[in-house]
Design brief:
The complex is a heterodimer of chains A (179) and B (90).
Chain A (H helix, E strand, L loop, with lengths): L10 H25 L4 H20 L9 H19 L6 H4 L8 H14 L1 H12 L4 H8 L4 H23 L8
Chain B lengths: L1 H14 L5 H13 L1 H38 L4 H12 L2
Helix pairs in contact in B: 1-3
C-alpha cells in the first residue's frame, strides 16, 4: 500500500527518522541557503522548523509513504527562506507563521506553559501524545502504563479538564493574558 | 465526575467538528443559554492551542539534541565536514 501512513509511534522512531532526514536533506537545504547568501545558523533554524512542519503533516496523514520526503522537506525549507526574505526582517518562528495562532499572546502563553511543564508534566505529555503526536490510544495506554484504551481515554479527559482549569485560573494572575 | 467528563467530551466533539448534526444543534442552543458552558469551551480551545505549542517545543528540543549529536559525535564527522564545506566556500 503506497498510501500508507508513515508510522511514528515512539520517541526512538522519531529520533531515527529525524537523523535520516537530517543526513539526506540538510546538505541540500544548506547548499540552497548558502547560495542565497544565508549563514549556517539560518540554515539550521530553517531546516529545524521545516522538520517540525514535516512532522506535523506526517502525523496528520497529509504525507504518506508515497511522498518523496526529501523533495517535500526541501520545498518547505525553501518556502520558509523565501518568506523570511520577503518579510525582510528577522526570521519568523513557525508559531507566529501559523495562521491559527494569530492574535494570541505569545508571552503569557510561555509563562503558562512553564508553569504547566513543572506542575503538570505528566498530563502535558499524555495530551501531547494524543493531540500532537496523534498516537493511537492503545499505544498511549501502553506508553503511560494504563490498563487499556478505556482508562487512557478517561485519563485524557481528566487531564484536559485539569489543564483547562489551570489555564483559566493562572490567566487571572497574568496581566498581559488575552482572553 | 462522570457527568463533567462527558461534557468535556461533548465540547471536544464540537470544537473538533466531530458532532452529529443533531447533537451540534442541541449544543449550539446550550451555548446560547449557558455562559458557563461558553466559558469552558473557550478555555478548552485554549488548552488545545497550548498542547500544540508544548508539542512543538518538545519536538524542537528533540531535534536540537539530534543536531548536537550530528555536529559533535565522531561517527558523524563526514556529514559535519560536508556541511562546513558548504559554508566555507564563499
Amino acid at each position: 500500500m503506497t498510501e500508507e501512513k508513515i508510522s511514528i509511534l515512539t520517541a526512538k522512531d522519531r529520533e531515527k527518522l529525524s537523523i535520516d532526514l537530517y543526513k539526506s536533506t540538510f546538505p541540500a537545504v544548506a547548499r540552497y541557503i548558502s547560495k542565497m547568501g544565508g549563514a549556517f545558523d539560518e540554515a539550521k533554524d530553517i531546516f529545524q522548523d521545516a522538520l517540525v512542519i514535516w512532522y506535523e503533516k506526517t502525523v496528520a496523514g497529509d504525507i504518506t509513504l508515497k511522498t518523496n520526503e526529501k523533495a517535500y522537506l526541501t520545498g518547505i525549507a525553501k518556502h520558509l527562506w523565501l518568506k523570511k526574505n520577503k518579510d525582510n526582517c528577522r526570521y519568523t518562528p513557525i508559531d507566529e507563521f501559523d495562521a491559527e495562532n494569530k492574535g494570541e499572546t505569545q508571552v503569557s502563553d510561555g509563562k503558562l506553559l512553564n508553569f504547566l511543564q513543572t506542575a503538570g508534566k505528566k498530563c502535558m505529555d499524555l495530551l501531547r501524545s494524543f493531540y500532537y503526536d496523534q498516537l493511537p490510544l492503545n499505544d498511549i495506554a501502553e506508553k503511560f502504563g494504563f490498563s487499556g484504551v478505556r482508562s487512557a481515554t478517561v485519563q485524557k479527559y481528566k487531564c484536559l479538564e485539569k489543564v483547562r482549569e489551570t489555564a483559566k485560573e493562572r490567566s487571572l494572575t497574568y496581566e498581559d493574558f488575552t482572553v | 465526575m462522570k457527568t463533567s467528563l462527558s461534557e468535556t467530551e461533548r465540547i471536544e466533539a464540537h470544537l473538533l467538528r466531530l458532532s452529529e448534526p443533531g447533537d451540534k444543534l442541541v449544543f449550539e442552543a446550550r451555548l446560547l443559554l449557558e455562559p458557563e458552558l461558553r466559558d469552558k469551551m473557550h478555555w478548552q480551545q485554549k488548552t488545545y492551542a497550548l498542547v500544540k505549542k508544548y508539542g512543538r517545543e518538545e519536538l524542537k528540543k528533540e531535534i536540537e539534541a539530534i543536531h548536537q549529536q550530528l555536529f559533535t559525535e565522531q561517527k558523524h564527522i563526514s556529514f559535519r565536514q560536508k556541511i562546513i564545506g558548504i559554508f566555507s566556500k564563499e
